[in-house]
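Board notes (copied after class):
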Amino acid sequence: MTKNRFEDKHTPSYGSFVEGELIAHETSEWQDIKLVRTDAHGVVMLIDDVLMLSEDTHYVYHEHMVHLTLSCIENPKSVLVIGGGDGGTVTELAKYPGLERIVLAELDPVVVEVSEKYLPELTAGLKDPRVEIRIGDGAAYLAEQENAFDAIIIDSTDVCEEAHVGAQTANPLVTDEFYSHIKKAIRPGGVTCQMLGSPTFYTNGMSLMYHRLEDLFTHFKPFLMPCPFYISGDWCGGLISDNNPLEPKYDHVDADKLVYFNMDIAKGALALPNNVRKMMK
């Protein structure tokens, strides 16, 4: 195996690297995608030279995004995933026997293709008959929906740095219009989960994002999850709803189907350290 080192630089003074065999390298219409097979951590995916997931630790992120969200909903039937072409979020959703419809709206078909080829366990849920894969603009698909989903999971790249720009941002997943479409598409009692980023490295953007979501939705609860391969280790998401108090109390999936998540983790994820609380003031 020919090993190469791939840098993931976050600031001028700090970064990380992945070392292993480059097994796939695709440049799509939207982004550069690399898959690297490592000795200790399985296959690692980088998009635009930023680490997205490792085969051995992805479950921490994916289980939080899915199971924390749905633990706030008594009887979820329909879920929309925007982004998440690697299949990890959908595969977690496929563990819910009560779900009737799972829609994956992914912009880049190449992400789906390379993930299915090189990450078969991660993408296993994409073959579930309840899953609809819609390639294209997830924001545009969302705009067409009305009272369609019990949960919406936004599994996109970092958005918090652009949060303060509002409707003028180049990222369609953080505009005021996008959030208005969430309100229209989600059913009463529904919950939306959005990945926010690192509270250590994106402090200003995170604070701005907190205040935007608090202003736009009746209920907003940020949560922390320990993502071993992400910069800083701790990563943040947010739960939002207009008519759900966001209390994790419904345990829908047997513990033996999960690697990391349980109901104690659900409650602990909502406990915020003092420095993160200050961002919300």
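Comment from the instructor: The two ends are 51 Å apart (CA to CA). Residues 203-216 form the longest helix (14 residues).
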